[in-house]
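Whether sequence alone determines local backbone shape is best considered at the level of individual chains. When preparing material for the folding task, we compiled for one chain both its residues and its backbone structure tokens. The sequence in question and its structure tokens are set out directly beneath this paragraph.
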Amino acid sequence: MTDASIHASSVREDEASFGDYFALLKPRVMSLVVFTALVGLLAAPISVHPVIGFTAILFIAIGGGASGALNMWWDADIDRVMKRTKGRPIPAGKISEGEAKVFGLALSGLSVIMLALATNVFAGAFLAFTIFFYVVVYTMWLKRSTPQNIVIGGAAGAFPPVIGWIAATGTMAVEPWLMFALTFMWTPPHFWALALFMRSDYDDAGVPMLTVTHGRRATRRHILAYTVLLALLAVATAFSGVGGPLYLAVALVLNAMFLMGAWKIFRRTEADSEADNFKVERSFFKLSLLYLFLHFGAILAETLLKPYGLGGW
């Protein structure tokens, strides 16, 4: 093998793959964006042609992925420090910060324009606002300036069902904002549970998460308080236009489990073994992932059953 071929081979090995660019989109977060937006679109009172519906969800997903790429571009410095994020494409040296920035901006423009053309200008504008909120308001401002970062910034992740609803109807209504509120109130206990067993990451990166600024005891109190409010909201949603008996049954079971998990976290102290605390906090975090998907799954089930006279009240 010649020197030139060896050099070409090493260059190819260093080049970013499709998987690296896909990882920039935060596919796990994108899956939540896609699902909640789909539920918002299908739960709307106006039916959408399948091709238009697919196109709308596709570009909402791309917009969500663009937000993730821009988030990774801005947060590259702290991602290199945190154990949970140092394997991401930029810290791993697969993609440069500049490439991630251009990639994110290009996808942002594409998603907003195409959603507006495929559905309506209101939906495109709302997607643009969501991307702005996540990248500028949360990532660039709140994340590094206040322990309430995840509380206020969580609104960005709660907008997709509203965008889906607007894509279908072109208007606002109470129901999509109930879905927004469900995700918005879920976000703090979900992320604070993660912060409890990954606190050293945020300490090392200098991110003012509640665990860092106020301590673990205060974080546990906040998790319990938000979980109580979330449970009340989740059960009340059963009696709205997107609820029904099936949703109510799911909400009662899930929120009983979630409240029990929050209570277990609240009762933990630093005198308890670190392994026990880690187990309880990690278990609650895993349940929180299932919690939101099942609530939205129940809303979707109620929607799909309505034409047969089985969904809703």
The domain at 17-172 is CATH 1.10.357.140 (Tetracycline Repressor; domain 2). The CA atoms of residues 94 and 111 lie 24 Å apart.
